[in-house]
Amino acid sequence: MTAPLLNVRGVETYYGNIRALNGVDVEVHRGEIVSLIGANGAGKSTLMMTIFGKPQARTGSIFFEGKDITRLPTHEIARLRIAQSPEGRRIFPRMTVLENLQMGASLDDLKHFKEDVEKVFTLFPRLKERQAQRGGTLSGGEQQMLSIGRALMARPKLLLLDEPSLGLAPLIIKGIFEAIKKLNKQEGLTVFLVEQNAFGALKLSDRAYVLVNGRVTMSGSGKDLLANPEVRAAYLEGGRH
Amino acid sequence: MANVASTTASAGSELTARALREAVFSGLITLGLFVLFVGLKSDQNIRNELILTQRWGLLAIFVIVAMVGRFLMVAYAQPWLAQRKAAKAAAPEVAKEETFFSRNFSKIAILALVLYPPVIVALVGVQGSLKWVDNFGVQILIYVMLAWGLNIVVGLAGLLDLGYVAFYAVGAYSYALLSSYFGLSFWVLLPVAGILAACWGVVLGFPVLRLRGDYLAIVTLAFGEIIRLVLINWTEVTKGTFGVSGIAKATLFGIKFDASKDGFAALMGLPISSAYYKIFLFYLILGLALLTAFVTIRLRRMPVGRAWEALREDEIACRSLGINTTTTKLTAFATGAMFGGFAGSFFAVRQGFVSPESFVFLESAVILAIVVLGGMGSLTGIFVAAVVMIGGTEILRELTFLKMIFGPNFTPELYRMLIFGLAMVVVMVWKPRGFVGSREPTAFLRERKAVSGSFTKEGHG
């Protein structure tokens, strides 16, 4: 097997003296959709942020394309073309949709701006209708689309999505997951997805990891985990399905 | 028809009756409130005895003002407001065709400013123009420039800076000291002052990189005070509270503005007057202010300007998009400070005298107030706010007729801060986003559209 695109090895992250990640190993290969599921406070978002260097891992290392990025500042990690749709979307509320997308493309010096905007608009036609509107006036689903669109503008090699389904209606979640699938199939985009919505995430993913108290307790293909009785009991039954 | 007319007539008389009733009530309340405060005044006479002065006339004025005010409010203002509200609700807002004036506001304003000195000279003569060009023109434009400079830091990058006057001071003292110690000319020292102020901007920027909002405001406030205290206490260099005087004037391509043989007036064959120098200064500060505006407009369309605005919105998102927030913040501080420095050296050349007195916290507060009132980020709004606020306080000096009403000891200037505060409250109630609350987008695929501030929630935009 070729070397993984993203390789997280034995990462421990602390908030002060509190250990949030306890030796996490995760691999993401080119062209995969990998998801990380887990309960509240398991450390999913912390792993996402640790990959982005804020907070930095205290021990362990993170490799991207074989390069050690553990100690790089966030903006330099982003320049390696890892893009992120952060938790809570974090779009720029006073800027228009188009300006938000422009910010996503700032690494590229806007060379492919028009072309990439068209791509985002074909993926999310709603954004095209709303291009002159302020980000803050969009609905939650549209903001999530904008957040993903903004991340795509950087032409990423790896897209990190932190809870894209957060606070959205089921129909909209379905749309967003379909868009992610489409990106993966058509563009070959590698996606690392953090989700609480375990059912949707597992169905979408090639592989998945289960995070419990800052430790990966299970991993496998999406299908296997969906069928796994432990996973079903903990994350699926009692919720949807 | 007749029926309808009679109902409106009866409604009208009912309204008048209600207004009269409420007027009487408010008159009584005013009487009750002020009878002891205004009607009676305790004083000491020559033998240190307490005496009561009775001021029934003044009390009557208070009561009458309250009654008339209430009557007008109920009888006219309230129905009018209700009507307007109803009309607004009835007719959905249609996109108004922008008038010629509002479309070309900035061009018209620049033209008017360029024509301002000749028009004033034509109206009130060379000597009479002094006051209008200097007190109104130059004074206002200094604040316009300062506010535009601060706008880069506060309005665009969203970094609340309460010590902006420090950079103004750095600029002013750079020129004052370097010109009096080394005899360098204004045109050499103008960029030097800007660079020095920018350096201080970076010096301030470094320790506050991790601070936001209130914390940043406090540190910048302290920074402003530190600079002022250094200026006061470093007496060997800055001459302390005495200030630096006799600062060299600026020249126009080497032509001096003085009464000498090769001075400006003599060369042009004009009668000797200090007004020409003031007019020259007017164009100088106009040029500097327009430079500030031009640079701001250009920068907003460039990656660094976009990064400033994105930084104001969400720092974490910025970082995850590959923006180096450290350099972005430092460039905002440095650029803002540079224009503060330019304005400062202009201030020194205009006054011919600088002392730490001119760089107190109040100045920072006034500049910040102008930026906030104008609508953060909007150059036009800030310009209007500066004209209203600074022009307004200057006009207060002119209102000598008020002395006839309030007695010869009344000095209207003393009330300027009171009026400043009142104006701020009024504007913030009316237009919580300042005069111009809308933000002009910088990215377009087809046509440009301004986005009204009223579309976004308060605190979200």
User: Would you identify the CATH architecture of the largest domain in chain A?
Assistant: 3-Layer(aba) Sandwich
Gross morphology of chain A: globular
What oligomerization state is this entry in? heterodimer
Rg measurement of chain A, Å: 17 Å
Q: Uncertain regions of chain B: pLDDT < 50 for 5+ in a row?
A: 452-461
Taken together, the total number of domains of chain A comes to 2
Secondary-structure-based class of chain B equals mainly alpha
What is the number of helices of chain B? Answer: 17
Q: How is the biggest beta sheet of chain B arranged?
A: 2 strands, antiparallel
In order across it, which strands form the biggest sheet of chain A? 6-7-8-3-9-10
What ranges of chain A have pLDDT less than 50 throughout 5 or more consecutive residues? none
Number of domains of chain B: 2
GO molecular function, one term (chain A): branched-chain amino acid transmembrane transporter activity
GO biological process, one term (chain A): L-amino acid transport
Keywords (chain A): Amino-acid transport, ATP-binding, Nucleotide-binding, Transport
Domain ABC transporter (chain A): 6-238
Task: Describe this protein with a few key phrases.
A: 241 residues, alpha/beta, Rossmann fold, six-stranded mixed sheet, four-stranded antiparallel sheet, 10 helices, 10 strands, globular, B: 461 residues, mainly alpha, ABC transporter involved in vitamin B12 uptake, BtuC, two-stranded antiparallel ribbon, two-stranded antiparallel sheet, disordered C terminus, ABC_branched_ATPase_LivF/BraG (chain A)
